[in-house]
Amino acid sequence: MIKKEMIAMLLAGGQGSRLGVLTSKLAKPAVAFGGKYKIIDFPLSNCINSGVDTVGVLTQYRPLRLNQHIGIGMPWDLDRNIGGVTVLPPYEKSSNSQWYTGTANAIYQNLEYMDYYNPDYVLILSGDHIYKMDYEVMLDFHKSSKADITLATYQVPMEEASRFGVVITDETGCIKEFEEKPENPRSNKASMGIYIFSWKVLRDALIEMKDVPSCDFGKHIIPHCHEQGMKICAYEYKGYWKDVGTLGSYWEANMELVDIIPEFNLYEEFWRIYTKSDILPPQYIADRSKVVKSIVGEGTEIFGTVENSVIGSGVYIGEDAVVRNSIIMNGAVIEKGVVMDKAILAEGVRIGEGTELGVGEEAPNEFAPHIYSFGLVTIGENSVIPAGVKVGKNTAIIGETTIDEYPDGLLKSGSSIIKAGE
Question: Is pTM, for the whole model, over 0.90?
Fold first, then answer.
């Protein structure tokens, strides 16, 4: 048995269904962010920057690309003989084998992994938030508060508080009450889904609550520990934090990166964000092209105009093409004369010559209005859009489409083309 002061358990098994066609073929933590990174790079980089060198990554939904990205953890200096990064998918046991059914159930199924390190503290993290946080500072707060559990909180606007689990604290920062996604919130201190547990407290609670269906930290474990009289404190985090769970928040967080003074700075020397990088040639920007206020990945060739956009690696943007306020992921091809505004293109998308994306007035999406909103055009991985068509706002496309799927050459605002099997 090896002794570690604190290990991290990173929950990365979610489907991220609110990202629509972007997560039809990969887990949300594996979605690209900022032209170069994956969403999971942020909590992994926070771990190594905070001195946490033992991380269990719990995967479930479409894990292949996430597993390939993490590998043996080399980019984050987590390729170690003792500790390092370990991918923990659900596995068959001699009895009662099951998928991970809730956040706490997933951790419970990996008690053996945690027992091996016998830590003093366990840090529970989500794999789908964009932020920089020193977990060591949070651990110091946990120790000085003599807390059994510390959860990180973030002040959100009162009108958004009903989307989160919120806490009500006393003057010392101890938690008096919890409200999980309340209709009429009495507090705007939102739980960030980041917890530090003293190991014995976590272990006992997981075993006691093991038969609760879809056992979850926010809904079950934390309230149970509160009822048992455990000391639970709130660590107030004041830096940048973004839950990129919706297409709107995902698009916004990317667009904030290209502000003149970005609120979230990817260029700081002292708190680097690490990622697995492919070896690619440098960018090429042609003499008649124009690039304004944008992030451009390696190996990208630009012959047209790019404004206020985040462009990944190995992208091709043809002559007279205009890309505005958009996110283009790796390997996309945008042919000559394409015009787009507020589009999100997943990896390997091909847009035919002269096509226009984001035209006309907004209309609610007929297929999934709660997902495809915000005036965006969202195109899933390896989709093909034929030449010369127009695509409206709040639209979604996935699959290899042909001209006859666009009535009169138009996919009107609020419509979708979702190919079977995609």
Answer: yes
